[in-house]
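Hey L., structure's done. Input below.
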Amino acid sequence: MKKTRIINAISALLLGCCGIGHAAPPTAPAMDSLGMELSPEEQTAIAQAMEYGRQISTWAEKHNGLPYRRDAHAKATGCVRATFSINGNIPLHFQHSVFSEPGREYQAWIRFSNGDMLVQADSKPDARGMAIKVMNVDGDKIAPELEGAKTQDFIMTNTPAFFNRNIFDYVADMKYLAQQKRLAWFVSLWPPRLHPRRLYIAAQTVSSKITTPLQPQYYSMLPYQLGNSAVKFSARPCAGMQFHTHADPQDHDFLTEAMAGQLESGAACFDFMLQQRLAGHAMPLDDATAIWSEAESPFVPVARLHIPPQSFSGEQQQSFCENLSMNPWHGVGDWRPLGSLSKARRLVYHAVSRFRHKQNDAPHFEPEGWCLTPEQTCDLSAVLHPSPAPAPAKRCFDSLYTPLGSAGAPPSCN
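Output:
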């Protein structure tokens, strides 16, 4: 019965959202059809995907038990507090939406996760996720149905490409996943079918083994419109970051333990970067299997994510993490997810989130800060730890530098 309700909720949302349209600026007409509007073919494909999603959820819930979890990235390896600081030298063409004020700092939440729909041991190869929620951003919300505070969400995995090109690939793949035939869409003797490149990407996606969620580079996979540009984004650990872990890789939750050990007394950081699409290059907007060439268009750092030393394993914070909603359509200003997969995510993520919160009898709110309740009154002294004094910056890039009062050679950077 409850599975029927999720389909009804999504169907209602599908009908209600089809008429919502925020046109792209006149200077970017090619991106308009890949932003908000749904074609009849896309509506049909999304409706089919919802039915297959119901069947998958029925099977996954029997394995995972309660609480009712996300249909993908079901297991969180931790939710941590962070700051998201816009760089002071951000290029002018990127100064839109959350990036419109160089030098501004925002509070944020980061949810790290394993990609599978099943809750399983961290040692099992899997995709790894990083979802950032930046809070109290200014500007008009791009998806009015996403109620609550003004937030901007950035959703990433640790692989730069997805194994489905678009919504039509996705629904065909979901058909076989619903039958518990994970490889059937990629290869079949009868009817004859072979998608070797997409099978290779899928194998790469689900074969990742990491030692801490703080170490990989994460990618958006899908493009977004920022002002008059199309971009992808990525988060890369800051240069010089060191990762020490004493967690036992055989422990069921060793990635959580590894990150907790790192953040007990030390900080972490990521450079948040944008990659601009170049006209006339092989950088498609509705093919998520395509990797845009970094040689032709390198990622440009535009912000810094700082994760201060902290504790994050308390029961209340774990519950908050479970109830946190991440949606690529949480955004403001001149920002639009692009492509048919993104249009599907707008409907799916919102409807499944509302259903999940209802089934778990959990509060549904968009956070405005680091507190775990809507009232935003809390004492953070027990969970945020003082940062150690930063070591002096090494000066080996300066060949003329010598320590004060010394006539010797420049110090070694070893």
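Confidence is low (pLDDT under 50) at residues 1-30, 389-414. The helical segments are 2-17, 29-32, 40-64, 167-177, 196-206, 254-265, 315-323, 340-359.

-- N.
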